[in-house]
Specification:
Shape: globular
Amino acid sequence: SDVSIRDQTADEAFARLQLLYAKYCDQNGLLNQNNLAILYKIVTIAAPNSEESHYNLGMYCHRIYKSFEDSKRNHRLFSLGKTEEILEMKGRTVRSLIESLKYGVKHAHNSLPLLLNIWLDLGTELAYSINRGRSSVSSSQLNEEIRKTIEKINNNLNDLLANVPLYIFFIVFAQ
């Protein structure tokens, strides 16, 4: 019993240290995107029941795809670029934010509106794409990728609804 408590404390300390290191590297541009993503993922593995670890991974994924969207508007090159990669990053963002909400509500005022915005924006994007009536192969593939991402998010949201008190959704109403 004493050993397991000591191991748990060591894991928590390791996770906090890794999170600090990840944030430091992120803020100072010391690692590339892939290595930073791995580092943030390591934190969630070291502390799987930590709101903080999942929240930070979700916010990192959010910053990545937002950077891509900004670079696309400004016609700059970016290392992430395929639509499937962006949709995957949006899905990861939502999945991580949902995981964070399972373990606490410290960041709920940020994570709930963000995950709902991503989910609703994807639904709007799909509806807009379908209503445009383009039936090209690339358009159909894009619609299918969006549909798959929305389906994954729906499953994650159902999981969230089953595991958290519903009153946390009142946080979103004020925003």
